């Protein structure tokens, strides 16, 4: 990596600090606006008020909000996100155990979506306005408009219960098992991600197909397959990389629901359960991690872009 | 001597959504070895389309019919099977397009694109091809080619890029070079350099050049013979001397008159009217509605056929005898 890219990366990682600070403030106060008392939830509806009071005090939740925030920040800067109220474990440990699962799912989904989108986009672009192109377009809209939890349940019903091709849930222990277990979850998210990729990619390919450099390459006798891959696709991919980067945040959001549907032990599942139990420290920690992931992925996208397109320089 | 390229009765009809466009109507001409032919006409006259059809590069999305024949070295290019195209394109016929800023792929280094072309047509190691690429850049007059070869297109100037395009086109020593408005997008000073380069390369490699242009100045400077197109029909074929001394077609005359002259004091003359709608097959002379000599005979397809009016001078005008000088 050259100096320019390194400088850019460092600068952006530094600028991550104020962003995360802002996010920590918003999440900290927002979750406390949600009705529901963690102590009450922990102890159950029939606990007596004194016990609830005692537990609240022990968790420090009786203190003024500002004080609570300052204590939280003090710990955070020492690398401590606090302990989970419900599971009684350090938040960092909880996240660390599940981060790789969610990352696996996100990367798997990205690769799967690209593998599905590229051939379809190419085909639709080359046979523009054909029956197939229109068919894919209709399928895209259908895929985009179906909620992912529903697609997830349908796929589960079809491919793991009717036809026992894939496991219903879980993560597995080895890499190949991960691939098998996470295939349906990844496919489910792909259903809504691929349409977002196919449309701009198709448009881009159509534009590039009539570019002069494509004609020039053909006029030089370059094989049609080479023209399509080396010149058309290679140039069309540029914009798609940005779209993928922007959509990673949304992908993480999608993983939250899909992990729950398929009982995948990842961050999304942890997030849902911690929201249901008002486990403040876990929620705060997870939101921070999600935000950091989105920012880092966008940074990586920017850097990848400069590698893919020699005309772009980072400032 | 047999001509290198012989275009015969070429007809191209484009089927658009609502109408058909008769873009090229029975065009015939030839290019001999080592000769430069100018294909001249205004926008929409079918000159680019004729040029592209030689390499079967007409836009594929529109449905179209192409009739006639394009003989090149004893083969009809229009009926060539797909696999054999590769041997003709880039290897025996090179092509230069109008806009050098968009005819190089922006994401590959200049050298990579030359290497790709060389290795498509010749058995060569990557290293050999890279060396050859540097030589080619040198041949087209690019200074410090060792440095330029590993630069990206956006790092080169327009003139330099057109030189790269020329290097690409001549990389496999083609017998024929198609140049579709090769200097239109360039500065006037650079235009001159590029044209001179083409002349020089033609002498070195002995290739025939088909130069598509709307610029009569370039024609006078570069060409041996000229084909004048109007509304997809050949109006006149003549040597440059014949054409400029005594054009035998009113359209050619109008074209020559509308070139600005430094020493003339009068107003610049244009040709009144505009191109006819080309949505039906051509009958007679397409220029008759704008022509001062037009008579009823001009609508007769038979009489407006291209005929030899003096040795090597062909005109499609019924009234060519009524024209003498300006």
Describe the structure.
- The complex is a heterodimer of chains A (315) and B (326).
- In chain A, 78% of the residues lie in helices and 0% in strands.
- Chain A has 315 residues and is mainly α.
- Chain A has two domains: 3-77, no CATH class; 92-308, MetI-like fold.
- Chain A starts with a helix and ends in a 7-residue tail after the last helix.
- The mean pLDDT of chain A is 89.
- With 326 residues, chain B is an alpha/beta fold.
- Chain B has two domains: 5-230, 3-Layer(aba) Sandwich (Rossmann fold); 249-326, no CATH class.
- Chain B is built from ten helices and twelve strands.
- Chain B has helices at 47-54, 82-88, 110-121, 126-139, 145-148, 158-170, 188-205, 216-222, 240-245, 250-257; strands spanning 5-15, 20-31, 36-40, 63-72, 75-76, 93-96, 176-180, 208-213, 225-230, 233-239, 307-310, 313-315.
- Chain B has an eight-stranded mixed beta sheet with strand order 6-7-8-3-9-10-12-11, sandwiched between helices.
- In chain B, a hairpin with a 4-residue loop joins strand 1 and strand 2 (20-31).
- The longest helix of chain B has 18 residues, at 188-205.
- Chain B is globular.
- Chain B starts with a strand and ends in an 11-residue tail after the last strand.
- The mean pLDDT of chain B is 89.
- The chains are: A mainly alpha (315), B alpha/beta (326).
- Chain B: GO terms for molecular function: ATP binding; ATP hydrolysis activity.
- Chain B: InterPro entries: AAA+_ATPase, ABC_Ni/Peptide_Import, ABC_transporter-like_ATP-bd, ABC_transporter-like_CS, Oligopep_ABC_C, P-loop_NTPase.
- Chain B: It comes from Brevibacillus panacihumi W25.
- Chain B: It is a peripheral membrane protein.
- Chain B: Belongs to the ABC transporter superfamily.
- Chain A: It is a multi-pass membrane protein.
